[in-house]
Hints:
It is a single chain. This protein is 77% helix and 0% strand. The chain contains 23 helices and no strands. The chain has helices at residues 16-43, 49-55, 60-76, 78-88, 90-107, 114-128, 131-140, 148-156, 158-174, 184-206, 219-239, 244-249, 251-271, 274-282, 289-313, 317-336, 341-362, 366-369, 372-386, 389-404, 408-426, 434-437, 440-444. The longest helix is centred in the N-terminal third of the chain and has 28 residues, at 16-43. The protein starts with 15 loop residues before the first helix and ends with a helix. Residues 1-10 and 435-445 have low confidence and may be disordered.
Amino acid sequence: MRVLSSSTLSSPRPDSALVLSRVTRRLIPFAFICYVVAYIDRVNIGFAARELQHDLSLSATEYGLGAGLFFLGYCLFEIPSNLMLERVGARLWIARIMIVWGLVSMATMFIYDVSSFMIARIVLGIAEAGFFPGMVLYLTYWIPAHERARANALFMTAAPVSVIVGAPVSEALLSMHGIGGLRGWQWLFLLEGLPAVILGVVALKVLTDRPEEADWLPPAERDWLAETMNAERALRKDTGHASVGRSLRSGRVWLLSTVYLMNASVTYGIFLWLPRMLQDTAGPGVSVSWLTALPFVAALIAMVLIGRHSDRTGERKFHVAACAITAAIGLFLAVAFRSNLYLLVLAFAICQIGQRSVMSVFWTIPPMLLSGSAAAAGIALINAIGNLGGFFGPTVMGTLRDATGGYSGGLLVLAGMLIVEAILVSMLKLPDTRSAVRSPQAAAR
């Protein structure tokens, strides 16, 4: 580990905005691209749902269950993965995750029945476990707390972008049906899994574990950033949990896990069924790939604007609650407009403006309560428990679709989850660190 320069205190203070701009340009675009690829690999079965159900003889319940099984494997390995990242460093561990998940995603082209489909989804979840919470933890090493909602938003806009990009790309790959004797969905898994392997290799060059090791920053800027982030970690030890055991027993950590469970249930209940819902409303022969993308274009803009507003005001939990209520309103409108394709798209746009904007602000909250290994374990626990919603959401949608013949029941259940989410996050008690996080050097003194 690099030792801070002895001239740090006597040298002029670097321009903090310039330092953070350099860090953002170096890390956020790469993290963003990796997350786009991760999300496409995670949800691309949503674009292939009709073909998979036909070729593998899957019922809606079996498809929804298989889609959700990804998150069972994902959940089991989240905490061990994040603790390993804290121990061996983000550079090696994130590269390992990406290479393995890319290979597993490509191997999904060999599934042939219900059992192999479900096994492939579980293994993919195990392979990808730790990527998202690892990246969230990694950014806490580099981005001060008062800038984190905006940085999170820039990183997490990858989720809506993955749908915007993934819809037309996946549709094009599905149209390759018959080429080389492969079905369209086999081409989809093969070619959409390959970028993760490539990016995993690139991660070894691009990522740097800690600010102290950043040879791509001038020495004065590197020393200032290291001092700033070390002071922030010391502050979190005073205001939150510092041990793994205490963080895993914390009521606030479990409340956050429940909030995220509700949000993820909605995320994947919609992501993995939206193309099919729009296609069923549009009717056969109508391409809906561009309509699928529109709600996520709206979400993309809203995430950045709401993240900036939360940073500017320093308020977190009521931003999350307001976004969740907005998303619930969108789902109620989707039920009301279910027979009109364009109004249905508008309703889902309102839902995604709220629901996706939850993410960038929500992930500023755990680092306010946790530090060190506790942050690695706590963030992983929140993400692991929360992402069980990726099992519940699609499964609820599929089961109620089979039971009722429509999507309204499932959408109303998801809207109810969003309301519960808003109530729970409003109950959370957070430390008042708004003034402290803007002056971590003062806290260190």
